[in-house]
Amino acid sequence: MSTSEKSSYHHGDLRATLLSTAMEMLEGGEPFSLRAIARQAGVSPTAPYRHFKDRDALESALAVEGFRDLLADLDGGRGLPASLPDLAEFAVAYVAFALRRPALFRVMFGKPCDDADDERIKAADALHELLADALDRVFPDADASALATAGWGLAHGLASLYLDGKLQAASGEEVANRVRGAFLAIASVGS
Amino acid sequence: MSTSEKSSYHHGDLRATLLSTAMEMLEGGEPFSLRAIARQAGVSPTAPYRHFKDRDALESALAVEGFRDLLADLDGGRGLPASLPDLAEFAVAYVAFALRRPALFRVMFGKPCDDADDERIKAADALHELLADALDRVFPDADASALATAGWGLAHGLASLYLDGKLQAASGEEVANRVRGAFLAIASVGS
DNA sequence: TACGGTATGTTTACGGTGCTAACAAAGCAT
DNA sequence: ATGCTTTGTTAGCACCGTAAACATACCGTA
Question: What is the pTM of this model?
Fold first, then answer.
């Protein structure tokens, strides 16, 4: 019950502290380096290496947090979608997450992530499965897998394009409307 | 007429040389730094700064090249699409470009590009217009703008997800099939 | 309770980066 | 020929990620 006491050596809870300060810097728009995190946490520049193999490992941990939060945003907010407009709201929430936490989103998606980070891969898979469930529920007759890929791709693409300034919109509300519009427009195309 | 002669000072054509060696390194999968480019070009580490304000400026120039190539891939290859399957092939070509030149694709899209780089913005806009034209031609009755956004978003999202390993496929052919599948699946949903 | 191993943090050091400032050489216009 | 401008060079700054050697505190066991 003395987690807040420090002996000034042996910080006591460095790993968690590093993660949370890293997340804060990420949200705050600061560039984020291992050294900066250590500095912020009041610890020596190489202390983080006792808890993370390298920068990638730290980023993976952050990405896992991000996936958890994104899932919560999508799922918790409104439950699984039951209609096409619900799906559009899913996409809106997805894009909103990306724009609200741009640096985190880039950490989550901006790299091959080829390292065999179990947790990270699991987190991304969970997202995919959630989407597949959702799509299957709305369009039970269609090829759920292809549709889930398409839906994810659409949402992710819009998120990326807005995030990187290739599509522009003044307000978050305008982005939401455009995303809704895109989602409904594409679904209204009866071959 | 002596562009290939050198006085050993005053390289003569450094800017172009820097761009091409940068592009080569990008395609070759090497990390790419200003200093590495200079090294490769046989010139001092800070010489590039006479031709590019900073790293971003060099990247912008590369991005412009990339957009030109991507447009050529989409347009030149098969002309403007006239049907939904043609559109799917557009998407396939888009994703293929991203997977064939991943580092370039990241340079083109992975950043806000908020600097007022005229050429770069123009290049991206040209892409958007091409897509809008294409979509309008295939679906003259629909909201061309919303559809173009949706189509671009879908293609771009699939490209990003495959590129960053969030979706996986063994071969390029498999990717192409999945992209086609996603495109057709989403279009076969009659609200 | 003393002890020794292990976990955690520190110091030092290396090579890399982007970038600036001061300097040098070549080209060009007068 | 002379001087301005362009283009290159060298030196140096602050930062980064990372490894190695060292120091300290914790924790289980004798």
Answer: 0.92
